[in-house]
Amino acid sequence: MGKKFKTALKLVDKASYGLGPAMELVKQAAFAKFDETVEVAMHLGVDPKHADQMVRGTVVLPHGLGKTKRVICIASGDKVREAREAGADEVGGDDLVQKIQGGWLEFDAVVSTPDMMKSVGRLGKILGPHGLMPNPKTGTVTTDVARAVKELKAGKVEFRVDKTGIIHCAVGKVSFEPLKLTENAQALISSVLKAKPATAKGKYVKSVVVSSTMGPGVPIDLVTIEAA
Prior knowledge:
This protein is of the alpha/beta class. It has 9 helices and 9 strands. A 4-stranded antiparallel β-sheet has the order 7-1-8-9, covered by helices on one side. Strands 4-3-5 form a 3-stranded parallel β-sheet, sandwiched between helices. α2 (19-29) packs across α8 (178-194). It is globular and about 60 Å long. The protein starts with a helix and ends with a helix.
């Protein structure tokens, strides 16, 4: 444990914090020379091994993530024009699929029309490990490509519980104002609460921690979360 981290850790002197004060503390405790990402980690009382307890979804963060996503769209017919007009960085059909097969990965999100998923399916081993595979559940396989592209550009992010029952999701940068970080985190947490599976038993949210890339975790008072 480095000296800077130990110094930052001393700032976290309470058992838990409200979301707003926690974000101020995250900014105060950040010590890296780069603009660190601020992340929310939510430990949920679900068993992801059971399909009916999988928690996943999307949320449009009101203040985005501090960078404009590079969004590509794999489509055909009129949908190519619609995606371009919506601001997609690259649009194509089988030619774009081949480009990705050739090793091109200079994008942050992929939207596809349902009719192109047969071709996109060949990219599973390439896009899957990077979390880029289009999926109807997250709205990235759709006939409304314009809406999907615009939402992704506006700061739409995906959340998904991992095998240990934890959701990790970025909500901004240390350079953001505390209020913007707080509002982004609130939007994420509200979406996760709404995504509670009907089969989840007992306490749904076990803990919430916010932190920067290099900084210490700041625990959130769950009473303030449940009251939000």
